[in-house]
């Protein structure tokens, strides 16, 4: 069979030659010997094909791996690295070191293949990497090879150098961001504290990125590494929350005068944080009857549309019996320019349309092509009739008096993450939660809560259909 197949190695069609290589590798020792010769072919594709074929049929690939680890083609060397993936680290280490020496600092596929091989052994190999590429060089002066391996391996031993690179103004913003990203994936208390220090950096892109990573990691692997109660990632919100807690305490105090409790209730009702706290109390049935009239008087004036919408579940208001007749609205001529203004002022805080708006709610860029005018009006007038999957609202109350309303982003055994209407993420310890309820009403305010007239509705639908 070998004598019959061997001539196909000279076929002008490269696919015929490749098939001959695979077949010969399965034709005993004589066939494997012919494939061994292809390991020296002038074409890297055929060398890689021969190596792949032999990998499937030989008992021990290591002798071939040692031979091909110095191949001039990164494509072939990657094949060698892939073949070592599931073999013992101590056995493959000498060949891996040879492959690492040939990393050019640019080939991300090559780097990823080596990184995959070294998973679980990053701390062991890192001193070899430093010796090979970074010895005697301060972190900000690393070459591309050292930078690449430190980023991909990111062992705890590299944390100090990565922090120096992250906060070095002489490096490019791209290099600083890469160092910060590597730090963010080291699950170590000292590294978390280092990221906290970087969040106070004088370099703006560094402080912003470090703050982002702290916020992101707070909800997962770094949750137990820091005392987050002492870390302020949103001082404005926390100051307002503390202020509202004082007002809540006075409002609930039966020893206070009715006028004082009335005053505090009204102030909370028109504040975005205070209004949320009042809704939380109402949901838990902890609001005293004496303050209800004062809250109902003001809460529908709250600047936060979602609070106005939620309030209708717990408080009475005038005008809620207003009926929007879709057929009558359809007869109105749409003023598209005014519809654009309405969208920008009432809808864009949550919805994205083209390049404008926010991604808190569903993207409406192509909504005008998906629905006709009747369906669009129905969706706006009756937002709770068909809530989009993933946008179901939740109301979470905590032991410290907070009430957070928004979308549930994630939940684990330690905490949940809620994104509110402003796009802010709240990481809440499960032990601090007093109640967590999925809401029946959409986060999107109805037209009454949003202050929209029939003409406004006709105009905004006209605008959406024009896009």
Short note summarizing the structure:
The protein has helices spanning 2-5, 14-24, 28-38, 44-57, 62-68, 74-83, 89-101, 108-117, 122-134, 144-153, 159-166, 173-184, 189-198, 204-218, 235-252, 258-269, 272-283, 292-298, 305-311, 326-330, 336-347, 367-370, 373-381, 454-466; strands at 352-353, 356-357, 393-398, 403-411, 415-420, 425-429, 433-438.
Describe this structure as you would to a colleague.
- The chain has 467 residues and is α+β, with helices and mostly antiparallel strands.
- The chain is built from 24 helices and seven strands.
- The protein has a five-stranded antiparallel β-sheet with strand order 6-5-4-3-7. The protein has a two-stranded antiparallel sheet with strand order 1-2.
- β5 and β6 form a beta hairpin.
- α3 (28-38) packs antiparallel against α4, α4 packs parallel to α6 and α15 crosses α17.
How much of the sequence lies in strands comes to 5-15%
Taking pLDDT < 50 over at least 5 consecutive residues as the criterion, the unreliable ranges are: none
| Quaternary organisation of the protein chains | single chain
Helix content bin = 40-55%
Counted beta strands: 7
Would you tell me the overall average pLDDT? Answer: 87
Distance between the amino and carboxyl termini? 67 Å
Order of strands across the main sheet = 6-5-4-3-7
- What is the radius of gyration? 32 Å
Describe the largest sheet: 5 strands, antiparallel
How would you describe this structure in keywords?
elongated, 7 strands, 467 residues, 5-stranded antiparallel β-sheet, alpha+beta, 24 helices, two-stranded antiparallel sheet
């Amino acid at each position: 069979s070998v004598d019959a197949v061997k001539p196909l190695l000279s076929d002008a069609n490269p696919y015929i030659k490749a098939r001959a290589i695979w077949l010969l590798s399965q034709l005993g020792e004589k066939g494997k010997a012919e494939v061994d010769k292809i390991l020296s072919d002038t074409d890297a594709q055929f060398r890689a094909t021969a190596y792949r074929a032999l990998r499937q049929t030989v008992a021990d690939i290591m002798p071939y791996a040692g031979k091909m680890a110095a191949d001039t083609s990164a494509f072939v060397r990657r094949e060698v690295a892939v073949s070592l993936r599931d073999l013992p680290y101590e056995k493959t280490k000498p060949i891996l070191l040879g492959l690492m020496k040939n990393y050019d600092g640019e080939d991300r596929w090559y780097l990823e293949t080596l990184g995959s091989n070294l998973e679980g052994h990053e701390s062991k190999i890192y001193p070899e990497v430093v010796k090979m590429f970074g010895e005697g060089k301060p972190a900000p002066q690393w070459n591309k090879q050292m930078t690449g391996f430190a980023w991909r391996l990111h062992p705890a031993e590299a944390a100090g150098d990565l922090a120096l690179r992250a906060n070095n103004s002489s490096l490019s913003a791209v290099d600083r961001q890469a160092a910060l990203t590597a730090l963010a994936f080291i699950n170590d208390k000292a590294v978390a504290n280092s990221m906290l220090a970087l969040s106070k950096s004088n370099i703006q892109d560094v402080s912003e990125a470090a703050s982002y990573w702290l916020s992101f990691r707070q909800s997962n692997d770094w949750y137990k590494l820091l005392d987050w109660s002492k870390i302020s990632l949103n001082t404005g919100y926390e100051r307002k929350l503390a202020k509202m807690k004082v007002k809540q305490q006075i409002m609930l105090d039966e020893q206070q005068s009715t006028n004082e409790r009335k005053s505090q209730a009204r102030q909370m009702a028109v504040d975005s944080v205070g209004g949320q706290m009042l809704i939380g109390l109402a949901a838990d049935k902890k609001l005293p009857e004496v303050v209800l009239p004062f809250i109902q008087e003001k809460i529908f004036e709250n600047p936060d549309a979602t609070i106005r919408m939620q309030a209708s579940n717990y408080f009475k208001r005038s005008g809620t019996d207003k009926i929007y007749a879709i057929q009558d609205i359809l007869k109105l001529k749409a003023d598209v320019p005014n519809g654009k203004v309405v969208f920008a002022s009432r809808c864009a805080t949550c919805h994205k349309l083209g390049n404008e708006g926010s991604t808190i709610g569903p993207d409406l860029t192509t909504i005008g092509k998906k629905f006709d005018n009747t369906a669009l009006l129905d969706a706006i007038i009756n937002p709770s009739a068909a809530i989009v999957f993933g946008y179901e609202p939740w109301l979470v109350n905590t032991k410290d008096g907070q009430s957070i309303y928004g979308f549930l982003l994630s939940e684990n055994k330690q905490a949940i993450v809620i994104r509110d209407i402003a796009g802010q993420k709240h990481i809440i310890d499960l032990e601090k939660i007093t109640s967590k309820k999925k809401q029946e009403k959409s986060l999107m305010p109805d037209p009454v809560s949003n202050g929209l007239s029939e003409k406004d509705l006709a105009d905004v639908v006209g605008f959406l259909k024009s896009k």
